[in-house]
Amino acid sequence: MNRTQLKRSSILRMALAGSEATDPDGETFVLRAVRIAAVVVLYWFVSITMVFLNNYLLDNRDLDAPLFVTFFQCAVTVGLCWLMQLLSRMCPRLVDFPAVRFDVKTSREVLPLSVVFIGMITFNNLCLKYVGVAFYTVGRSLSTVFNVLLSYGVLKQTTSLRALMCCGVILGGFWLGVDQEGTTGSLSWSGVFFGVLASACVSLNAIYTKKVMPAVDGNIWKLSYYNNINACVLFLPLILVFGELGRLATFSRLADLGFWGMMTLGGVFGFAIGYVTGLQIKYTSPLTHNVSGTAKACAQTVIAVVYNSSSKSLLWWTSNMMVLGGSSAYTWVKSREMQRSPRKDPQDLAKEKLLPGEKGSLGV
Question: Basic and acidic residues compositional bias: what residue ranges (predicted)?
Fold first, then answer.
């Protein structure tokens, strides 16, 4: 009994002392808490802003060119990689970025991933274009389900009953959300179709990322560099085939600096999300990152509904909670399973979540 009281009093003293309690590295509890809060807020700000900015660019009625918008964002990412390399050489203490020289062999090895990557970000943007921000979380919610299906079909990995039950909740939320969107008359079957394709590509992207990581020495920024260069090249024939070049030629705001500024800003946020995702995982954990991403998706949906002055039914909100709750539960179940399994490295979850640009994850 005395020991229990002693422990409680020690914990209370640490809580009250706050700023005086330090970890082995000499960092105070308050400083650590403030840093984590700042990183989470930064992740939320970058991620939510990026989604709304992309929705603004893709919803432009004067320019129906989603492939060009995505191509331009990839080009901005490549340019920022070059800039970061330059800053890293000039200010190595302030900027840490790997030196990358373009190698044709490495580019060819990354190419299969790049094909999946352009499918992921293109279908992702098309889903956002047709369903809007409010329904975006539900429309793009099946990536977890595809993870399970592809893990079994491609990697021959089985999934526990608890994880399958979580997938069942996600599927239920998805179908309920589609039903409720149809009831209100705002359902876009094209958006749902592109959302399903985007979810499948997100899962394939994770699998191919693991396969090509050795080609870039396991460095996520090198992978992002080669991936986006390949994507820029692959997008060019697609832009021509789908007639977007003609639409660009007749676009009235082609010489408008404001339009190009917004386009560039979209690319900057696309690049920044990869950095803040890694930062959040570094200062918290992969599980906390996923919980934060789920909470952010919920806040993003609420902001979109309020901003558009929409009125949603209880069942519509229930579908969102089912998707977000099922996704969070699945992450928790998988993290527990990885901790119990001696054959798996706990860092694998972090590597899976730290994908280039995070353009296809539910958290975005």
Answer: 338-356
- Rounded distance, CA 207 to CA 201, Å? 10
pLDDT digits (tens, 9 = 90+) for 31-69: 888 888 888 899 999 999 999 999 988 888 788 899 999
Angle between helices 257-283 and 29-58 (to 10 degrees): 150
- H-type helices in 242-313, by residue range? 244-249, 257-283, 286-307
Q: How far apart are CA 63 and CA 248, in angstroms?
A: 7
- pTM: predicted TM-score of the whole model, two decimal places: 0.80
Whole-angstrom distance, CA of residue 20 vs CA of residue 30: 8
Q: CA 250, CA 325: separation in Å to the nearest integer? A: 46
349 in any annotated domain: no
Buried b (16+ CB within 10 A) or exposed e, 212-221: bbebbeeebb
Q: How many domains does the chain have?
A: 1
Give the count of beta carbons closer than 10 Å to the beta carbon of residue 335. Answer: 16
Q: Name the region of 310 (left: φ>0; alpha: ψ -120 to 50; beta: rest).
A: beta
Count the residues in the chain.
Answer: 364
What residue numbers bound the domain in which 315 lies?
30-338
Q: Residue 262 carries which side chain, given as an amino acid letter?
A: M
- Look at residue 320 and tell me if it is in a domain: yes
Helices (H) then strands (E): counts for the chain: 14, 0
Angle at 129 (CA atoms; ends 208, 195), nearest 5 degrees: 40
Single out the residue of 62, 65, 57 nearest to residue 238, CA to CA: 65
Q: Does a structural domain hold residue 14?
A: no
What φ, ψ does residue 28 adopt, rounded to 5°? -70, 155
How many Å apart are CA 97 and CA 322, to the nearest integer? 39
What's the CA gap between 335 and 49, in Å, rounded?
Answer: 29
What is the rounded CA–CA span in Å between residue 118 and residue 93? 34
Note the pLDDT tens digit of each residue in 101-154: 889 999 999 999 999 999 999 998 999 889 888 888 888 888 888 888 888 887
With beta carbons less than 8 A apart as the criterion, state whether 328 and 291 touch: yes
